[in-house]
Amino acid sequence: MNPIDTLAINGGKPARQRPLPPNYPGATVMDEAEGKASSAVVRAQSPFRYYGPDVQHAVRHFENEMGREWSIPYVLGVSSGTAALIVAMKALGIGIGDKVIVPAITFLATPGAVVCCNAVPVFADVDDSLNLDAASLENVYDDEVKAIIVVPILGTPVDMDPIMSFARKHKLAVIEDIAQSCGVKYKGNYAGTIGDIGAFSFQMNKLITSGEGGAIMTHSPELYERAVRYHDQGIMREKERFGFPDVDEAERAFVGQNYRMSELTGAILVEQWKKRSQMITVMRDRKQQIVDELTRVLPSIRFRGVIDAAGDTGSSLGLLLPDAAHTQKANDALHAEQIESFILYGGQPVYKIPQIWRQRTADKHNFPFNYPYRRAVRYEDGMCPKAEDLVCRTLFIPISPLLTEEDASQIANGVVKVYKAYRIGTA
Ligand SMILES: *Cc1c(COP(=O)(O)O)cnc(C)c1O
């Protein structure tokens, strides 16, 4: 290789000749298995989970498999990841007058679900891993806060122990929004099974997918019962399944909504679920290979911080650059090299997205943001300095389970080429 190869963005030969596989892990491994499973539901003419001429119980089967493999007694399939968060908060009784701590770096759905529950999100800062930092909880905590949502971003674990101790001390519930991180582990335990409730998404971008879909999981029979009711118009069917046969409906029922999972979704997820470990194994290997190749050639390259490397799913690699301008340039240059990369959420913490920043909702007077909290909720520049600094200078490389070792090498070569041309990580 020449000391500095001409970048493709400047007319040079790209590091790769063909585009990489698209970054939809679960969808790209769909095959006959998902086809057969969903056909069985169609052939049985029974796409609804609770009744029909010949219900296949695909959703129930999926819930049972998740619970069995992750050793958690209660799993409930729902219609989306957003629905999972809403059902989780409703199960916990979160509502008007409450605040919920949300990390500064997450997708809009996390604070959006809080607002849907008539509560208001307050934002805590992140650590070097870009995930919630327990040390910043004290800054936003007051006695109107009722829960903390942690969000392992793009397949990496959150430092849960100090967050759980803070939550226990202040009697706060912990929801793990593991939409992006199915299969992440922290100290050997699956994310989603550590807090009070885990919330999953099976939307197209996530590790395993049915296009749309979600789930919650919990160790608590009380939370499970409330979740089932909220997701199904306040009703609890299948009472015998988990030993709730004697529940007095008139006493226990409350108004719910419809966030049920369809049998077609369940059937596809049963097959996707079987594929997740193999996908994680490949992604972790390819990521490690890229990291090894990069550190060999670029002595001062920096990566996103890691809390527990053994628990990473390998679905993304975060490169930490000197500043936002270099990050944008490197992103553009990599695309020209036919290498996928992205700056997460436009390089902004979630509270800077207009609907959150301006506290606008579909309700009159922007309810619930207008609730007269004792300590008003305001979103300001510099509120979470670490998130503001890091998110705009982290460049993510998606790691697909379809990458070959050769693809991984070409990704590393492309990054090296761009870093050398822009004199990043070379000193
Ligand atoms: C995708 C996502 C959600 C929402 O999931 P949907 O299934 O699209 O509703 C929630 N939280 C995070 C962190 C996500 O990435």
UniProtKB/TrEMBL annotation:
Domain of life the protein comes from: Bacteria
InterPro entries, alphabetized: DegT/StrS_aminotransferase (IPR000653), PyrdxlP-dep_Trfase (IPR015424), PyrdxlP-dep_Trfase_major (IPR015421), PyrdxlP-dep_Trfase_small (IPR015422)
Pfam family, one: DegT_DnrJ_EryC1
Keywords assigned by UniProt, alphabetized: Aminotransferase, Pyridoxal phosphate, Transferase
GO molecular function: transaminase activity
UniProt key word Transferase: yes
Similarity remark: Belongs to the DegT/DnrJ/EryC1 family.
Designated name of the protein: DegT/DnrJ/EryC1/StrS family aminotransferase
Source lineage: Bacteria, Bacillati, Bacillota, Bacilli, Bacillales
